[in-house]
Design brief:
The complex is a heterodimer of chains A (about 230) and B (about 110).
Chain A: H1 3-33, H2 38-47, H3 51-62, H4 67-77, H5 81-88, H6 97-105, H7 109-122, H8 127-151, H9 166-182, H10 185-201, H11 203-206, H12 208-229
Chain B: H1 5-29, H2 36-43, H3 45-58, H4 71-86, H5 89-107
Helix pairs in contact in B: 4-5
InterPro entries (chain A): Brnchd-chn_aa_trnsp_permease
Keywords (chain A): Cell membrane, Membrane, Transmembrane, Transmembrane helix, Transport
Membrane topology (chain A): Multi-pass membrane protein
């Protein structure tokens, strides 16, 4: 373990903390109102560790869905991680399967965004840096969920403070930073537009999760085709 | 402060199905050297997935042409320019939240 790299990873996690805090806090509130205990919410954040999946879990518990239905839904909601995990794999070729297991198990949209931006900028991702980033995000997520579960009853309306915008703002920032470091503006903008159109266009038909996967696959393929043209 | 047995089993099952898609590609694909086209395809995924997530967060089909009903989209566009200008994730997030706060206050 390289300490300098580890703490650089922790530091590079800081810009995402506000997004995690607000979403984690909201997720804790929702889970509490669905009837889960604080200990159950902590366990959920520790073992499942996924924003959208935890919202859906709480919602389905509240409306008495079957256990099998909940497990199947969470599987589909998080299936996009197949693509994120695959996209990071070229950076971690020299690692043992166990170390890749550790890195992958804490993979989220946000840590993926930060680490792929790092990869685009520096051409490599140090495993210790990745562990630092992952652990900082993970602990912050658990703390935010527990705080939401404990304090949620006093703060009824976090949207009033604009905090729910921390997440889209973070995705916008990550998108722009990647484009700047990749310097392939034409094809990147085409890929992004395609992903937005497919992602939003399919949403009414297939729901959010499937649309994200469809949009990512379509847009990445378009990127490959566009590259071939020149 | 307790965990019921059925919730515990449910959470563990959910944990397994969310863990597999996260770890399998990293564990399996990192052992092979992928062909060039596959690497280039994968290199487009960050842009594609971030754009799709932003799109779903900000673009909802609404039956309204009032600017006040589209404040999040406006905040998103302003945040985009701040990100390009500052090149800092932290400033982008701070600006985005402040900007949303002000715009929603104005629209209310």
């Amino acid at each position: 373990m390289n300490k300098v790299q580890f703490f650089r990873g922790v530091r590079d996690c800081i810009p995402t903390l506000l997004g995690y805090l607000s979403i984690g806090f909201a997720s804790g509130i929702i889970a509490k109102s669905a009837g889960l205990s604080v200990a159950e919410i902590a366990l959920l954040s520790i073992l499942v560790y996924a924003g959208s999946a935890q919202f859906i879990f709480a919602g389905m518990i509240a409306s008495n869905h079957s256990a099998a239905g909940i497990v199947a839904t969470l599987f589909f909601v998080n299936l996009r991680h197949l693509l994120l995990s695959a996209a990071l794999s070229p950076y971690f070729q020299k690692l043992t399967p166990f170390k890749n297991l550790l890195i992958g198990s804490l993979l989220t949209d946000e840590t993926f965004g930060v680490s792929s931006a790092q990869g685009a900028k520096e051409g490599a991702i140090h495993p210790s840096w990745m562990h630092g980033l992952n652990l900082a995000a993970y602990l912050n997520w658990i703390a935010a969920n527990v705080a939401g579960a404990c304090l949620g009853q006093w703060i009824s309306d976090p949207e009033r403070f604009g905090l729910d915008f921390a997440l889209p703002a973070m995705f916008i920032g990550l998108l722009v930073l990647q484009m700047i470091s990749r310097k392939k503006y034409k094809s990147d903008i085409l890929v992004a537009l395609c992903a937005i159109i497919v992602g939003v266009g399919c949403e009414a038909l297939f729901g959010k999760s499937v649309s994200i996967i469809a949009a990512t696959i379509t847009a990445a393929t378009l990127g490959l085709v566009v590259e071939k043209w020149r | 402060m307790e965990v019921s047995r059925s919730i515990f089993i449910l959470i563990v099952c959910c944990s397994l199905v969310t863990l597999l898609p996260r770890v399998l590609p990293l564990m399996v694909l990192s052992r092979f050297s992928l062909p060039d086209w596959a690497l280039r395809w994968l290199s487009h995924i960050p842009i594609a997935v971030m754009a799709a997530l932003v799109g779903q967060e900000l673009l909802q089909v609404k039956d309204s042409y009032r600017l006040a009903d589209h404040m999040d989209l406006l905040a998103g566009i302003l945040t985009f320019f701040v990100a390009a200008k500052t090149k800092s994730l932290l400033w982008t997030v701070i600006f985005g939240v402040m900007c949303t706060l002000v715009l929603r206050w104005m629209a209310a």
